[in-house]
Amino acid sequence: MACAIDKSVFLVPEGRRYLVNATRFRGPCADSFIIQIAGTIIAPSEPMDWDPKNPTVWLVFSKLKGVIFQGGGIFNGSGTKWWATSCKKLKTKECRSRAAPTALTIDSSSAIRVRNLKLQDSQQIHFAISRSDSVRVSEILIEAPSDSPNTDGIHISDTTNIVVQNCKIGSGDDCISIVNGTSNLKMKNIDCGPGHGISIGSLGKDNTMNIVTGVVLDTAILRGTTNGLRIKTWQGGSGYARSLRFENVKMIDVANPIIIDQFYCDSSTPCQNQTSAVKISQVMYRNISGTSKTPKAMKFACSDTVPCSNIILANINLERDNGTAETFCNCAMGFDYGVVKPSAECLHVDEDSRCDTKQDHVQRKIHDPVHTEL
Q1: How confident is the model at residue 357 (pLDDT cuts 50, 70, 90)?
Q2: How much is the pLDDT for 85?
Q3: Can 196 be counted among the known catalytic residues?
Q4: CA-to-CA distance for 89 and 87, rounded, in angstroms?
Q5: CA dihedral 230, 234, 235, 239 (to 10 degrees)
């Protein structure tokens, strides 16, 4: 469906429900274009009835400029039957291997505003933002069961200058996932849970080069998630993730509150050990508190050959209701100040350790850490 009407308004009236199959809305669209959703848009519930021409998307809006999505309405992905046949749930040869649709996608667009909408029970990812610039997302409610597979809340890729604020997200995967090509992202007032936490990555899969820079999370609460603040990369990748800041975050019964995992392997077979890796540096965690479900409240599992550097911890207070919280490090360099609990002495890697730290130690002495303000 093409868009060529200036200063127009589309209305989905309150109280009305519309069954809509996979649809693409293509621009260019002029400034001051408003898409008003007050009712409910529902996806077909049967995977076998899905449009074969659009196997991985439901509603796609592309090549828009200056468009506003608003209205308090609902996007219902009717994902129950998709989840039931997912290979993540059925460990059999008969499980459905093809990807399920993403519910709502904003692609190749600029100056976009999305506010006051609800997305629920998506077939897979709820809301994807890709190849865009200047996107502001606010007052979004996302709801899906904790066991719904691959139902990320907001997924951001190849996009710059993004603000995500005042959002409540609960799903079966990452509340917010941030992948290659993302830069200058600020998240504020995020309520996450259930789900897998707020994740940068995964990065570097299949030996690819990935870059993420300038990410800030300021003020969030994570409730009962399997991870809290996570950076995950595959072995064999290249590129970097740097200038990342997480601050003013409350953890409630989170399994892995702070985690960097450079040995990520989401595969049915073991992943091959490789020496190259996405470089992780200039990461600050400040004013992080709450409870951990597992002993390792902080885990920095970094590459032996491309260590993490300039990891900064400031005012950390993570405890366990029953037991002692610990910090684990592998090839992670940095420092801490203020109260840091549990202790993170393992960040101070010695020069003669097995990690390739010589270059990073020189860098740390010369350059102060940089943390992007947005």
Answers
A1: low
A2: 83
A3: yes
A4: 5
A5: -80
Which residue out of 173, 218, 261, 360 is catalytically annotated?
Answer: 173
Is residue 348 annotated as part of the catalytic site, yes or no? no
Residues 6+ apart with CB under 8 A from 264: 201, 202, 232, 233, 234
Task: Report percent pLDDT > 90 for the chain.
Answer: 73
CA angle (122 as vertex; 258, 202 as ends), nearest 5: 35
Residue 5 has a pLDDT of: 43
The model carries a pTM of 0.92
Could you tell me which of 327, 282, 284 has the C-alpha nearest to residue 308? 282
Annotated catalytic residue within 121, 126, 174, 196 = 196
For residue 94, what pLDDT band results from cuts at 50, 70 and 90? low
